[in-house]
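Handout for the seminar on molecular recognition.
Each group receives one record of this type.
Step one: identify the two inputs.
Step two: read the structure output and locate the region that could contact flavin-adenine dinucleotide.
Step three: write two sentences on what you found, then compare them with the reference statements printed after the record.
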Amino acid sequence: MEAMGLDFTPAVGDYAFTPQQRSLLALANRLGREKFAARAAQWDEEASFPFANYEDLRETGLLKICVPQAHGGLGADYPTYMMVAAEMGRFCGATALTWNMHVSSTMWTGVLADGIPMTESQRAEHAAHSLLHFRRVVEEGAIYAQPFSEGSAAAAGRAPFGTTARKVEGGWLVNGRKIFASLSGAADYYGVLCTEDKGDEKPDARDTLYLAVPGTSPGFAISGDWNPLGMRGTVSRNLTFTDVFVGDEEQLMPRGVYWKGAQTWPAMFFTLAPTYLGIANAAYDFTVQYLRGEVPGEPPVKRRMYPTKQVAVAQMRIQLEQMRSIFLRAILEARPNPSKDEKMRLYAAQYTVMEGANDIARLAIRTCGGQSMMKHLPLERLYRDSRCGALMLPWTAELVLDRMGREALYEAGEKDE
Ligand SMILES: Cc1cc2nc3c(=O)[nH]c(=O)nc-3n(C[C@H](O)[C@H](O)[C@H](O)COP(=O)(O)OP(=O)(O)OC[C@H]3O[C@@H](n4cnc5c(N)ncnc54)[C@H](O)[C@@H]3O)c2cc1C
Protein backbone atom coordinates (compact mmCIF):
# COMPACT_ATOMS: atom_id res chain seq x y z
CA MET A 1 0.00 0.00 0.00
CA GLU A 2 3.01 2.25 0.53
CA ALA A 3 3.35 2.92 -3.19
CA MET A 4 -0.08 4.55 -3.06
CA GLY A 5 0.81 6.45 0.10
CA LEU A 6 -2.26 5.09 1.89
CA ASP A 7 -2.48 2.58 4.74
CA PHE A 8 -5.64 0.96 3.34
CA THR A 9 -6.80 -0.28 -0.07
CA PRO A 10 -9.46 2.14 -1.31
CA ALA A 11 -12.83 0.79 -2.48
CA VAL A 12 -11.81 1.60 -6.04
CA GLY A 13 -8.66 -0.56 -5.70
CA ASP A 14 -5.04 0.53 -5.94
CA TYR A 15 -3.90 3.08 -8.48
CA ALA A 16 -1.28 5.79 -8.94
CA PHE A 17 -3.44 8.38 -7.15
CA THR A 18 -2.69 12.09 -7.38
CA PRO A 19 -1.82 13.83 -4.07
CA GLN A 20 -5.34 15.33 -3.96
CA GLN A 21 -6.95 11.93 -4.55
CA ARG A 22 -4.82 10.40 -1.80
CA SER A 23 -5.69 13.04 0.73
CA LEU A 24 -9.44 12.98 -0.06
CA LEU A 25 -9.52 9.18 0.00
CA ALA A 26 -7.75 9.19 3.36
CA LEU A 27 -10.25 11.74 4.67
CA ALA A 28 -13.29 9.76 3.47
CA ASN A 29 -11.87 6.54 4.89
CA ARG A 30 -11.16 8.15 8.27
CA LEU A 31 -14.60 9.80 8.50
CA GLY A 32 -16.24 6.58 7.41
CA ARG A 33 -14.37 4.32 9.81
CA GLU A 34 -14.44 6.63 12.82
CA LYS A 35 -17.93 8.15 12.45
CA PHE A 36 -20.24 6.97 9.66
CA ALA A 37 -19.92 3.19 10.13
CA ALA A 38 -21.07 3.31 13.74
CA ARG A 39 -24.04 5.57 12.95
CA ALA A 40 -25.30 3.72 9.86
CA ALA A 41 -27.56 1.31 11.77
CA GLN A 42 -29.43 4.20 13.38
CA TRP A 43 -30.42 5.90 10.09
CA ASP A 44 -31.42 2.52 8.73
CA GLU A 45 -33.50 1.57 11.76
CA GLU A 46 -35.30 4.92 11.94
CA ALA A 47 -35.36 5.63 8.19
CA SER A 48 -34.02 9.03 9.25
CA PHE A 49 -31.63 11.40 7.50
CA PRO A 50 -27.93 11.26 8.51
CA PHE A 51 -27.76 14.87 9.75
CA ALA A 52 -24.75 14.17 12.00
CA ASN A 53 -22.77 12.87 9.00
CA TYR A 54 -23.66 16.01 7.05
CA GLU A 55 -22.22 18.13 9.86
CA ASP A 56 -18.96 16.21 9.39
CA LEU A 57 -19.13 16.60 5.60
CA ARG A 58 -19.66 20.33 6.03
CA GLU A 59 -16.82 20.71 8.57
CA THR A 60 -14.30 18.78 6.51
CA GLY A 61 -15.11 20.63 3.28
CA LEU A 62 -16.59 17.60 1.53
CA LEU A 63 -19.85 19.40 0.73
CA LYS A 64 -17.83 21.63 -1.59
CA ILE A 65 -15.66 18.86 -3.06
CA CYS A 66 -16.65 19.66 -6.66
CA VAL A 67 -16.99 23.41 -6.34
CA PRO A 68 -14.13 24.89 -8.42
CA GLN A 69 -11.15 26.11 -6.40
CA ALA A 70 -11.55 29.58 -7.93
CA HIS A 71 -14.90 29.76 -6.10
CA GLY A 72 -13.65 28.46 -2.76
CA GLY A 73 -14.24 24.74 -3.28
CA LEU A 74 -11.89 21.75 -3.32
CA GLY A 75 -12.00 21.57 -7.12
CA ALA A 76 -12.17 17.78 -7.42
CA ASP A 77 -12.57 16.52 -10.98
CA TYR A 78 -14.91 13.72 -12.09
CA PRO A 79 -12.64 10.71 -11.43
CA THR A 80 -11.51 12.10 -8.08
CA TYR A 81 -15.09 12.58 -6.90
CA MET A 82 -16.06 9.08 -8.09
CA MET A 83 -13.17 7.47 -6.17
CA VAL A 84 -13.99 9.33 -2.97
CA ALA A 85 -17.72 8.53 -3.28
CA ALA A 86 -16.94 4.80 -3.52
CA GLU A 87 -14.88 5.09 -0.33
CA MET A 88 -17.79 6.73 1.45
CA GLY A 89 -20.23 4.08 0.23
CA ARG A 90 -18.20 1.50 2.08
CA PHE A 91 -19.30 2.90 5.44
CA CYS A 92 -22.79 4.32 4.93
CA GLY A 93 -24.68 3.77 1.68
CA ALA A 94 -27.41 6.31 2.44
CA THR A 95 -24.86 9.03 3.18
CA ALA A 96 -22.89 8.31 0.01
CA LEU A 97 -25.99 8.20 -2.18
CA THR A 98 -27.47 11.44 -0.85
CA TRP A 99 -24.06 13.12 -0.93
CA ASN A 100 -23.99 12.18 -4.60
CA MET A 101 -27.24 14.07 -5.26
CA HIS A 102 -25.76 17.12 -3.56
CA VAL A 103 -22.32 16.90 -5.18
CA SER A 104 -23.75 16.25 -8.65
CA SER A 105 -25.58 19.55 -8.41
CA THR A 106 -22.20 21.31 -8.17
CA MET A 107 -20.31 18.97 -10.51
CA TRP A 108 -22.82 19.15 -13.37
CA THR A 109 -22.93 22.92 -13.11
CA GLY A 110 -19.15 23.15 -12.60
CA VAL A 111 -16.58 20.89 -14.19
CA LEU A 112 -19.06 19.05 -16.44
CA ALA A 113 -20.73 22.22 -17.73
CA ASP A 114 -17.34 23.34 -19.07
CA GLY A 115 -17.62 20.55 -21.66
CA ILE A 116 -21.21 21.28 -22.73
CA PRO A 117 -21.62 23.41 -25.85
CA MET A 118 -23.14 26.83 -25.01
CA THR A 119 -23.45 30.11 -26.84
CA GLU A 120 -21.43 33.02 -25.50
CA SER A 121 -24.45 34.55 -23.80
CA GLN A 122 -25.45 31.19 -22.26
CA ARG A 123 -21.89 30.77 -20.97
CA ALA A 124 -22.00 34.25 -19.41
CA GLU A 125 -25.43 33.61 -17.87
CA HIS A 126 -24.24 30.27 -16.52
CA ALA A 127 -21.12 31.82 -15.00
CA ALA A 128 -23.25 34.39 -13.15
CA HIS A 129 -25.86 31.91 -11.85
CA SER A 130 -23.45 29.17 -10.85
CA LEU A 131 -21.57 31.71 -8.68
CA LEU A 132 -24.68 32.04 -6.53
CA HIS A 133 -25.03 28.28 -6.03
CA PHE A 134 -21.32 27.78 -5.34
CA ARG A 135 -21.37 30.64 -2.82
CA ARG A 136 -24.30 29.08 -0.96
CA VAL A 137 -22.47 25.76 -0.68
CA VAL A 138 -19.11 27.30 0.26
CA GLU A 139 -20.25 30.08 2.60
CA GLU A 140 -23.51 28.76 4.00
CA GLY A 141 -22.88 25.01 3.78
CA ALA A 142 -26.12 24.70 1.81
CA ILE A 143 -27.32 21.24 0.70
CA TYR A 144 -28.81 20.61 -2.75
CA ALA A 145 -31.13 17.70 -3.66
CA GLN A 146 -31.75 16.34 -7.17
CA PRO A 147 -35.40 15.36 -7.60
CA PHE A 148 -35.90 14.18 -11.20
CA SER A 149 -38.15 11.12 -10.92
CA GLU A 150 -41.86 11.44 -11.53
CA GLY A 151 -43.10 7.88 -12.07
CA SER A 152 -43.37 8.52 -15.82
CA ALA A 153 -40.95 7.82 -18.69
CA ALA A 154 -39.31 11.23 -18.12
CA ALA A 155 -36.55 10.22 -15.69
CA ALA A 156 -35.63 7.40 -18.09
CA GLY A 157 -35.02 10.12 -20.70
CA ARG A 158 -37.93 8.95 -22.84
CA ALA A 159 -40.45 11.79 -22.38
CA PRO A 160 -40.58 15.43 -21.28
CA PHE A 161 -40.90 16.01 -17.53
CA GLY A 162 -44.48 16.48 -16.33
CA THR A 163 -43.34 19.13 -13.85
CA THR A 164 -43.51 22.44 -15.70
CA ALA A 165 -42.08 25.94 -15.41
CA ARG A 166 -43.80 28.92 -16.99
CA LYS A 167 -41.85 32.11 -17.64
CA VAL A 168 -43.11 35.08 -15.63
CA GLU A 169 -41.62 38.47 -14.85
CA GLY A 170 -38.24 37.92 -13.11
CA GLY A 171 -38.45 34.14 -12.93
CA TRP A 172 -40.47 30.98 -13.29
CA LEU A 173 -43.67 29.47 -11.89
CA VAL A 174 -43.19 25.79 -11.14
CA ASN A 175 -46.02 23.24 -10.96
CA GLY A 176 -45.90 19.47 -10.63
CA ARG A 177 -44.85 16.53 -8.53
CA LYS A 178 -41.67 14.55 -7.97
CA ILE A 179 -41.26 11.15 -6.34
CA PHE A 180 -38.24 9.61 -4.62
CA ALA A 181 -36.66 12.94 -3.69
CA SER A 182 -33.67 11.91 -1.59
CA LEU A 183 -32.76 14.49 1.08
CA SER A 184 -36.40 15.58 1.33
CA GLY A 185 -36.71 17.80 4.36
CA ALA A 186 -32.91 17.95 4.73
CA ALA A 187 -31.97 19.91 1.60
CA ASP A 188 -31.96 23.69 1.46
CA TYR A 189 -32.49 23.68 -2.33
CA TYR A 190 -34.14 21.16 -4.65
CA GLY A 191 -32.60 21.01 -8.15
CA VAL A 192 -35.75 20.24 -10.10
CA LEU A 193 -35.86 19.15 -13.74
CA CYS A 194 -38.96 20.46 -15.45
CA THR A 195 -40.25 21.23 -18.92
CA GLU A 196 -40.82 24.78 -20.05
CA ASP A 197 -44.55 25.42 -20.36
CA LYS A 198 -44.88 27.30 -23.64
CA GLY A 199 -48.65 27.61 -23.63
CA ASP A 200 -50.21 25.74 -26.54
CA GLU A 201 -46.93 24.24 -27.79
CA LYS A 202 -46.42 20.49 -27.29
CA PRO A 203 -44.02 19.82 -24.36
CA ASP A 204 -40.52 19.04 -25.68
CA ALA A 205 -37.65 17.37 -23.76
CA ARG A 206 -35.26 19.86 -25.40
CA ASP A 207 -36.98 22.55 -23.30
CA THR A 208 -35.92 20.93 -20.01
CA LEU A 209 -35.07 23.44 -17.30
CA TYR A 210 -32.94 22.73 -14.24
CA LEU A 211 -34.09 25.03 -11.42
CA ALA A 212 -33.09 25.27 -7.75
CA VAL A 213 -36.25 25.56 -5.65
CA PRO A 214 -35.56 26.84 -2.11
CA GLY A 215 -37.10 24.50 0.48
CA THR A 216 -38.80 27.49 2.10
CA SER A 217 -40.72 28.53 -1.06
CA PRO A 218 -44.49 29.11 -0.68
CA GLY A 219 -46.32 26.36 -2.61
CA PHE A 220 -43.58 23.77 -2.03
CA ALA A 221 -44.59 20.70 0.04
CA ILE A 222 -43.18 17.30 1.05
CA SER A 223 -45.53 14.35 1.45
CA GLY A 224 -45.79 10.57 1.63
CA ASP A 225 -44.33 7.84 3.81
CA TRP A 226 -40.79 6.59 3.60
CA ASN A 227 -40.48 2.99 4.75
CA PRO A 228 -38.47 1.16 2.05
CA LEU A 229 -36.43 -2.05 1.88
CA GLY A 230 -33.03 -0.36 1.79
CA MET A 231 -31.22 2.98 1.56
CA ARG A 232 -33.57 4.05 4.30
CA GLY A 233 -31.49 7.03 5.43
CA THR A 234 -31.99 8.74 2.05
CA VAL A 235 -35.51 9.82 3.10
CA SER A 236 -36.70 9.99 -0.50
CA ARG A 237 -40.27 11.31 -0.16
CA ASN A 238 -42.58 13.06 -2.66
CA LEU A 239 -42.51 16.77 -3.50
CA THR A 240 -45.31 18.92 -4.84
CA PHE A 241 -44.99 22.34 -6.43
CA THR A 242 -48.05 24.55 -6.67
CA ASP A 243 -47.33 27.84 -8.42
CA VAL A 244 -43.90 27.99 -6.79
CA PHE A 245 -42.10 31.15 -7.88
CA VAL A 246 -38.33 30.97 -8.37
CA GLY A 247 -36.19 33.84 -9.62
CA ASP A 248 -34.20 33.66 -12.88
CA GLU A 249 -31.00 33.35 -10.88
CA GLU A 250 -32.15 29.93 -9.59
CA GLN A 251 -31.49 28.38 -13.01
CA LEU A 252 -28.76 25.81 -12.42
CA MET A 253 -28.20 25.69 -16.18
CA PRO A 254 -29.38 28.06 -18.90
CA ARG A 255 -32.50 27.13 -20.87
CA GLY A 256 -31.95 24.04 -23.04
CA VAL A 257 -28.47 23.30 -21.71
CA TYR A 258 -29.40 20.37 -19.45
CA TRP A 259 -30.74 18.46 -22.47
CA LYS A 260 -27.52 19.10 -24.39
CA GLY A 261 -25.52 18.07 -21.32
CA ALA A 262 -27.32 14.75 -21.07
CA GLN A 263 -26.40 14.02 -24.72
CA THR A 264 -22.81 15.27 -24.39
CA TRP A 265 -21.78 13.88 -21.00
CA PRO A 266 -23.37 10.44 -20.49
CA ALA A 267 -20.98 9.78 -17.60
CA MET A 268 -23.03 12.25 -15.55
CA PHE A 269 -25.50 9.39 -15.04
CA PHE A 270 -22.79 7.05 -13.74
CA THR A 271 -22.41 9.00 -10.50
CA LEU A 272 -24.89 6.77 -8.64
CA ALA A 273 -22.61 3.74 -9.09
CA PRO A 274 -19.74 4.49 -6.67
CA THR A 275 -22.01 4.15 -3.63
CA TYR A 276 -22.69 0.57 -4.66
CA LEU A 277 -19.04 -0.21 -5.37
CA GLY A 278 -18.46 0.88 -1.78
CA ILE A 279 -21.20 -1.43 -0.54
CA ALA A 280 -19.68 -4.37 -2.47
CA ASN A 281 -16.33 -3.67 -0.80
CA ALA A 282 -17.98 -3.57 2.62
CA ALA A 283 -19.73 -6.93 2.08
CA TYR A 284 -16.48 -8.50 0.93
CA ASP A 285 -14.46 -7.02 3.83
CA PHE A 286 -17.04 -8.20 6.33
CA THR A 287 -16.99 -11.73 4.92
CA VAL A 288 -13.22 -12.01 5.23
CA GLN A 289 -13.31 -10.65 8.78
CA TYR A 290 -16.18 -12.93 9.78
CA LEU A 291 -14.70 -16.12 8.33
CA ARG A 292 -11.42 -15.32 10.10
CA GLY A 293 -13.35 -14.94 13.37
CA GLU A 294 -12.27 -11.32 13.76
CA VAL A 295 -15.53 -9.34 13.88
CA PRO A 296 -15.36 -7.19 17.05
CA GLY A 297 -17.93 -8.26 19.66
CA GLU A 298 -18.55 -11.65 18.02
CA PRO A 299 -17.22 -14.99 19.33
CA PRO A 300 -13.79 -15.63 17.71
CA VAL A 301 -15.07 -18.63 15.75
CA LYS A 302 -13.06 -19.33 12.62
CA ARG A 303 -14.91 -20.64 9.59
CA ARG A 304 -12.20 -20.07 7.01
CA MET A 305 -10.99 -23.69 6.85
CA TYR A 306 -13.95 -24.97 4.82
CA PRO A 307 -13.13 -25.26 1.09
CA THR A 308 -16.65 -24.14 0.09
CA LYS A 309 -16.13 -20.87 1.98
CA GLN A 310 -12.75 -20.35 0.38
CA VAL A 311 -14.30 -20.86 -3.07
CA ALA A 312 -17.10 -18.40 -2.31
CA VAL A 313 -14.61 -15.77 -1.10
CA ALA A 314 -12.56 -16.32 -4.25
CA GLN A 315 -15.70 -15.79 -6.37
CA MET A 316 -16.53 -12.62 -4.45
CA ARG A 317 -13.01 -11.29 -4.90
CA ILE A 318 -13.03 -12.06 -8.63
CA GLN A 319 -16.29 -10.16 -9.02
CA LEU A 320 -15.01 -7.28 -6.90
CA GLU A 321 -11.82 -7.02 -9.00
CA GLN A 322 -13.92 -7.01 -12.18
CA MET A 323 -16.09 -4.24 -10.76
CA ARG A 324 -13.10 -2.17 -9.67
CA SER A 325 -11.35 -2.55 -13.02
CA ILE A 326 -14.24 -1.53 -15.22
CA PHE A 327 -15.24 1.23 -12.79
CA LEU A 328 -11.74 2.69 -12.79
CA ARG A 329 -11.43 2.51 -16.56
CA ALA A 330 -14.85 4.14 -17.02
CA ILE A 331 -14.15 7.06 -14.68
CA LEU A 332 -10.68 7.72 -16.07
CA GLU A 333 -11.86 7.86 -19.67
CA ALA A 334 -15.10 9.78 -18.96
CA ARG A 335 -15.32 12.89 -21.16
CA PRO A 336 -17.76 14.88 -23.29
CA ASN A 337 -18.81 13.12 -26.52
CA PRO A 338 -17.32 9.70 -25.75
CA SER A 339 -16.71 7.21 -28.57
CA LYS A 340 -19.19 4.38 -29.06
CA ASP A 341 -16.85 1.91 -27.32
CA GLU A 342 -16.38 4.26 -24.36
CA LYS A 343 -20.15 4.65 -24.04
CA MET A 344 -20.72 0.89 -24.20
CA ARG A 345 -18.06 0.45 -21.51
CA LEU A 346 -19.77 3.05 -19.36
CA TYR A 347 -23.10 1.21 -19.60
CA ALA A 348 -21.31 -2.08 -18.91
CA ALA A 349 -19.64 -0.52 -15.87
CA GLN A 350 -22.98 0.70 -14.51
CA TYR A 351 -24.57 -2.74 -14.97
CA THR A 352 -21.55 -4.56 -13.53
CA VAL A 353 -21.44 -2.41 -10.40
CA MET A 354 -25.18 -2.20 -9.73
CA GLU A 355 -25.91 -5.90 -10.24
CA GLY A 356 -22.52 -6.99 -8.87
CA ALA A 357 -23.00 -5.22 -5.53
CA ASN A 358 -26.14 -7.21 -4.87
CA ASP A 359 -24.48 -10.47 -6.03
CA ILE A 360 -21.58 -9.96 -3.64
CA ALA A 361 -23.90 -9.09 -0.74
CA ARG A 362 -26.03 -12.18 -1.49
CA LEU A 363 -22.95 -14.43 -1.57
CA ALA A 364 -21.68 -12.82 1.63
CA ILE A 365 -24.81 -13.80 3.55
CA ARG A 366 -24.91 -17.31 2.09
CA THR A 367 -21.25 -17.85 2.93
CA CYS A 368 -21.15 -16.35 6.41
CA GLY A 369 -24.42 -18.06 7.36
CA GLY A 370 -27.40 -17.42 9.59
CA GLN A 371 -25.68 -15.71 12.50
CA SER A 372 -24.24 -13.12 10.12
CA MET A 373 -27.63 -11.72 9.07
CA MET A 374 -28.64 -10.54 12.53
CA LYS A 375 -29.56 -6.87 12.82
CA HIS A 376 -26.64 -6.02 15.10
CA LEU A 377 -24.25 -6.77 12.22
CA PRO A 378 -24.01 -4.62 9.06
CA LEU A 379 -24.38 -7.41 6.48
CA GLU A 380 -28.15 -7.56 6.26
CA ARG A 381 -28.27 -3.76 5.78
CA LEU A 382 -25.61 -3.99 3.05
CA TYR A 383 -27.70 -6.69 1.39
CA ARG A 384 -30.85 -4.55 1.46
CA ASP A 385 -29.04 -1.36 0.40
CA SER A 386 -27.30 -3.18 -2.45
CA ARG A 387 -30.65 -4.18 -3.97
CA CYS A 388 -31.49 -0.54 -4.73
CA GLY A 389 -28.64 0.21 -7.17
CA ALA A 390 -30.15 -1.50 -10.20
CA LEU A 391 -33.38 0.49 -9.75
CA MET A 392 -31.87 3.94 -10.13
CA LEU A 393 -33.04 5.80 -13.23
CA PRO A 394 -32.11 6.70 -15.88
CA TRP A 395 -29.71 3.75 -16.02
CA THR A 396 -31.55 0.92 -14.28
CA ALA A 397 -30.12 -2.53 -15.04
CA GLU A 398 -33.01 -3.12 -17.44
CA LEU A 399 -32.58 0.16 -19.26
CA VAL A 400 -28.83 -0.42 -19.60
CA LEU A 401 -29.52 -3.78 -21.28
CA ASP A 402 -32.07 -2.06 -23.47
CA ARG A 403 -29.62 0.67 -24.54
CA MET A 404 -26.64 -1.65 -25.04
CA GLY A 405 -28.57 -4.13 -27.15
CA ARG A 406 -30.09 -1.42 -29.32
CA GLU A 407 -26.90 0.60 -29.70
CA ALA A 408 -24.87 -2.53 -30.51
CA LEU A 409 -27.21 -3.52 -33.32
CA TYR A 410 -28.22 -0.13 -34.71
CA GLU A 411 -25.97 2.78 -35.65
CA ALA A 412 -27.38 6.27 -34.93
CA GLY A 413 -30.35 6.97 -37.19
CA GLU A 414 -30.60 3.38 -38.53
CA LYS A 415 -34.10 1.88 -38.80
CA ASP A 416 -35.70 -1.30 -40.12
CA GLU A 417 -38.28 -0.85 -42.87
C1 LIG B 1 -33.02 4.77 -2.52
C2 LIG B 1 -33.49 5.54 -3.70
C3 LIG B 1 -33.20 6.88 -3.79
C4 LIG B 1 -33.64 7.62 -4.88
N1 LIG B 1 -33.35 8.96 -4.94
C5 LIG B 1 -33.75 9.66 -6.02
C6 LIG B 1 -33.48 11.07 -6.11
O1 LIG B 1 -32.85 11.67 -5.23
N2 LIG B 1 -33.92 11.73 -7.19
C7 LIG B 1 -34.60 11.11 -8.18
O2 LIG B 1 -34.94 11.76 -9.14
N3 LIG B 1 -34.91 9.81 -8.11
C8 LIG B 1 -34.48 9.07 -7.06
N4 LIG B 1 -34.77 7.72 -6.98
C9 LIG B 1 -35.69 7.16 -7.98
C10 LIG B 1 -35.05 6.25 -8.99
O3 LIG B 1 -34.08 6.88 -9.77
C11 LIG B 1 -36.17 5.74 -9.89
O4 LIG B 1 -36.80 6.82 -10.47
C12 LIG B 1 -37.18 4.96 -9.19
O5 LIG B 1 -36.59 3.90 -8.50
C13 LIG B 1 -38.14 4.45 -10.28
O6 LIG B 1 -39.13 3.72 -9.69
P1 LIG B 1 -40.49 3.44 -10.43
O7 LIG B 1 -41.10 2.32 -9.70
O8 LIG B 1 -41.27 4.67 -10.57
O9 LIG B 1 -40.02 2.96 -11.86
P2 LIG B 1 -40.88 2.81 -13.15
O10 LIG B 1 -40.78 4.06 -13.95
O11 LIG B 1 -42.22 2.27 -12.81
O12 LIG B 1 -40.06 1.71 -13.89
C14 LIG B 1 -39.94 0.39 -13.41
C15 LIG B 1 -38.79 -0.25 -14.15
O13 LIG B 1 -39.14 -0.35 -15.53
C16 LIG B 1 -38.04 -0.01 -16.35
N5 LIG B 1 -38.38 1.12 -17.23
C17 LIG B 1 -38.76 2.38 -16.88
N6 LIG B 1 -38.99 3.14 -17.94
C18 LIG B 1 -38.77 2.34 -19.02
C19 LIG B 1 -38.83 2.53 -20.43
N7 LIG B 1 -39.17 3.73 -20.94
N8 LIG B 1 -38.50 1.48 -21.22
C20 LIG B 1 -38.16 0.27 -20.71
N9 LIG B 1 -38.10 0.04 -19.37
C21 LIG B 1 -38.38 1.05 -18.56
C22 LIG B 1 -36.90 0.35 -15.45
O14 LIG B 1 -36.00 -0.73 -15.35
C23 LIG B 1 -37.53 0.60 -14.10
O15 LIG B 1 -36.69 0.19 -13.04
C24 LIG B 1 -34.37 6.98 -5.91
C25 LIG B 1 -34.64 5.61 -5.82
C26 LIG B 1 -34.21 4.88 -4.75
C27 LIG B 1 -34.53 3.42 -4.69
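Reference statements: Residues 299 and 367 are 17 Å apart (CA to CA). The beta strands are 144-145, 164-168, 171-181, 189-196, 208-214, 220-223, 237-247, 251-253.
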